Amino acid sequence: MPHQALRARAAFLSVVILAVGLLLWQAAVGGGGEDTSGMSDELAALLGPQAKGQSAFPPPAAVLGELWRHVSDPFYDAGPNDKGIGIQLAYSLLRVGLGFLMAAAVAVPIGFLIGMSPLMQRALDPFIQILKPISPLAWMPLALYTIKDSSVSAVFVIFICSIWPMLLNTAFGVGAVRREYLNVAKTLELGPLRTALRIILPAAAPTILTGMRISIGIAWLVIVAAEMLVGGTGVGYFVWNEWNNLSITNVIAAIFFIGLTGMLLDQALGLLARAVRYED
Questions:
Q1: More confident residue, 122 or 47
Q2: Half-sphere exposure of residue 265, counting CA atoms within 13 Å on the CB side?
C-alpha cells in the first residue's frame, strides 16, 4: 500500500509539474497584438505572428493540435518531403534496428572472446581504446564515400555507435562470472562452447542486456543527427525539413515523438533485462 500511495503521489506531482510548465509556456509566448493597419498584407503574412507583436514560438494549444493531426493520420504520403510521422519513425526505427542487430552480432561474440581470454583482452584493448571515443558522425564521410548509399551509411553509423557499450558490457559480464562456476564446468569436462552457452551466458546475460539498453539509447540519439545529414526519410530529416519550412510547431511535435519513441525503446530493453535476471 505505501508503494501504491507513493506512485499515486508521484503521478499527481507529475501532472502538476506538466500543468505549471504549460502555463509558463503559454504566458511566455502570449502577448498583446499591435496595430498592423500600416503593414501590407504580404508583409504581415510573411512575418506571421511577429507582425502582431506576438512570439513566433507556438503556444501549447497549437502544438497539441499539431500532435493530434500527426496521430490521427500518421501514415499519409504526399510526396518525398511530405510524409506522415508514422512513416518517418518507421524509417528511423528500421535503420536503428538493423544497425543495432549488426552491432549485437559482432559485439557479443567479441565480448565473450575478450572476457574469456586475457590474451585477447590485452591484444584488442589498444584498438578499442582508440576507436571507442570517436564520434559516430565522424565516420559518416567515410561511409558515404565507400558505401555510396546514404540510408545504408546511416545504418553503419548506428552500428558503430551501438557496438562499444555492448562489447564492453559483454566483456565485463563474462569476465565477472564466478570462478567456482568455471571450475565446475572444468570438472564436468564441458567444452569451451558449452561452457560459454550453459555457464557463462546465463550469468552474464543481465550485464549484456544492460549494454544493449545503453546502446539502443545512444543509437536513437545518433539516428536523428545522422538523418539530418543524409536526408531523404526518417524523423531526423523530418525535423530538419520542418526547420527549413520555419514550422517550429512541427519541430516541437517531432521532438515529442522522438522522446516518446526513445522512452518506449528503453522500456522494452528494460523489460527484457528484467526477464533474464540471474540469481547467484
A1: 122
A2: 23
CB 223 within 8 A of CB 158: yes
**What is the sign, positive or negative, of the torsion defined by CA atoms of 39, 44, 46, 48?**
positive
Cβ 88 vs Cβ 74: under 8 Å: no
CA distance 257 to 32: 31
Contacts 24+ apart (CB under 8 A), 141-147: 144/230
Within a 10 A sphere around the Cβ of 255, how many other Cβ atoms? 14
Beta carbons within 8 Å of 79's beta carbon, 6+ residues apart = none
Say how far apart CA 85 and CA 66 lie, in whole Å: 11
Average pLDDT over residues 201-223: 93
User: Residue 36 in 3-state DSSP?
Assistant: coil
Q: In whole angstroms, give the CA distance from residue 236 to residue 91.
A: 10
Question: Cα 280 to chain center, whole Å?
Answer: 32
Partner residues linked to 77 by β-bridges:
83
CA–CA separation, 159 vs 156, rounded Å? 5
Query: Can you list the alpha helix ranges (DSSP code H) found in the chain?
Result: 2-29, 41-47, 60-72, 85-116, 118-131, 140-147, 150-175, 179-187, 192-194, 201-230, 235-244, 248-275
Q: Which residue has the cell 574469456?
A: 116
pLDDT digits (tens, 9 = 90+) for 174-187: 998 888 888 888 88
